[in-house]
């Protein structure tokens, strides 16, 4: 089947919309017509020549669409179903079986290599050359994608499907980090470093969870203003020298939990310093440099937790977030700006500059 896809041919080249060939789904797979796909900072990782996945590649891992073909062996999903696409997992390792598919033993190979267990994926160019097309098991920056049934969450047909894709990764990561990994609960105090899509989703989730104090830290005033509207009780400009001291003062000795979405070592150190004894900081941001901590940084029972995908089971968390959205308690759509598929370069630039919190590309007019 011929489709249109945004192909990254070289590390420093723009994404180009190309006509490519998409293979039929095989056992356990589906073909999905993509109605909307979020653009995430993770989608630019293959621009790094040292990264695991390399061009030519089709990225995109926050897809939403309609099932148009079902492969052999798929049950519970039918042609015409509306679906959200999330990360890939093997379903067989100890962590998958134990309800932690985000910590699948094969997570990095299945999601960040651009390749599947059996090769580069279902896409080839019109000359027959393979294109890496198993990015997070979906490579959904395209008009259509072939995905594993394990990636799929079936949703109600009355939803604005084109806006739902970011639930499958960025929004899931923020909300799951607060609700599941860090277990923020009633009366807890919580700080978020970086008020992008992940951080603001964590703010909304912490409000739902009943946190008594929610502090957002960011460099951009407009994002801090939005954080206050979405549930933060306090905001701090990130360029302030004494962020951790301010947080400790606001919360009576430090927060129970903090979430870093930046990956910046100095910010992570500040997040750790903002904790109360026995507090935990979760790390979801891609590290930018080596993290070096002071000898006593983790004294008094402080903890650091690496988090992938919020430690979520998408089939459980995403319906919960959608129901909260219906109740106007989790208005994630306020983070989104839509772009025609042809404007992918603008979407990438706006995501990088922070002009748009969560770009969503629309492959079909």
UniProtKB/TrEMBL annotation:
<feature type="domain" description="Enoyl reductase (ER)">
    <location>
        <begin position="10"/>
        <end position="361"/>
    </location>
</feature>
<dbReference type="Pfam" id="PF00107">
    <property type="entry name" value="ADH_zinc_N"/>
</dbReference>
<comment type="similarity">
    <text>Belongs to the zinc-containing alcohol dehydrogenase family.</text>
</comment>
<keyword id="KW-0560">Oxidoreductase</keyword>
<dbReference type="Pfam" id="PF08240">
    <property type="entry name" value="ADH_N"/>
</dbReference>
<dbReference type="InterPro" id="IPR002328">
    <property type="entry name" value="ADH_Zn_CS"/>
</dbReference>
<dbReference type="InterPro" id="IPR013149">
    <property type="entry name" value="ADH-like_C"/>
</dbReference>
<keyword id="KW-0479">Metal-binding</keyword>
<dbReference type="InterPro" id="IPR011032">
    <property type="entry name" value="GroES-like_sf"/>
</dbReference>
<dbReference type="InterPro" id="IPR020843">
    <property type="entry name" value="ER"/>
</dbReference>
<protein>
    <submittedName>
        <fullName>NAD(P)-dependent alcohol dehydrogenase</fullName>
    </submittedName>
</protein>
<dbReference type="InterPro" id="IPR013154">
    <property type="entry name" value="ADH-like_N"/>
</dbReference>
<keyword id="KW-0862">Zinc</keyword>
<dbReference type="InterPro" id="IPR036291">
    <property type="entry name" value="NAD(P)-bd_dom_sf"/>
</dbReference>
């Amino acid at each position: 089947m011929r489709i249109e896809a945004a192909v990254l041919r070289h590390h420093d080249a723009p994404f180009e919309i190309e006509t490519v060939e998409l293979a039929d789904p095989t056992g356990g797979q589906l073909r999905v017509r993509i109605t909307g796909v979020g653009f995430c900072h993770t989608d630019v990782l293959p621009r790094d020549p040292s990264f695991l996945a390399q061009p030519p590649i089709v990225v995109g891992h926050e897809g939403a669409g309609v099932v148009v073909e079902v492969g052999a062996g798929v049950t519970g999903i039918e042609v015409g179903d509306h679906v959200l696409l999330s990360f890939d997992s093997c379903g067989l390792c100890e962590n998958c079986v134990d309800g932690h598919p985000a910590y699948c033993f094969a997570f990095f190979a299945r999601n960040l290599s651009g390749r599947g267990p059996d090769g580069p994926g279902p896409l080839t160019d019109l000359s027959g050359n393979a294109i890496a097309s198993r990015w997070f098991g979906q490579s959904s920056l395209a008009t259509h994608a072939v995905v594993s049934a394990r990636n799929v969450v079936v949703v109600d047909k009355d939803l604005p499907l084109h806006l739902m894709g970011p639930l499958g990764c960025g929004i899931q990561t923020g909300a799951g980090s607060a609700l599941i990994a860090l277990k923020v609960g009633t009366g807890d105090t919580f700080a978020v470093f970086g008020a992008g899509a992940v951080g603001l989703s964590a703010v909304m989730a912490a409000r739902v969870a009943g946190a008594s104090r929610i502090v957002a830290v960011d460099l951009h005033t407009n994002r801090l203003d939005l954080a206050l509207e979405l549930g933060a009780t306090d905001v701090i400009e990130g360029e302030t020298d004494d962020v951790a001291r301010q947080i400790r003062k606001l919360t009576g000795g430090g927060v129970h939990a903090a979430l870093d979405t930046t990956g910046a070592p100095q910010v992570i150190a500040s997040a750790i310093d903002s904790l109360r004894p026995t507090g935990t900081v979760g790390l979801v941001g891609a590290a930018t440099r080596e993290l070096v901590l002071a000898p006593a940084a983790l004294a008094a029972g402080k903890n650091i937790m690496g988090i992938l995908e919020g430690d979520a089971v998408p089939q459980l968390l995403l319906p919960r977030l959608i129901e909260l959205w219906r109740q106007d308690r989790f208005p994630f759509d306020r983070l989104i700006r839509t772009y025609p598929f042809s404007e992918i370069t603008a979407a990438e630039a706006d995501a990088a500059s922070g002009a748009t919190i969560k770009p969503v590309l629309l492959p079909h007019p």
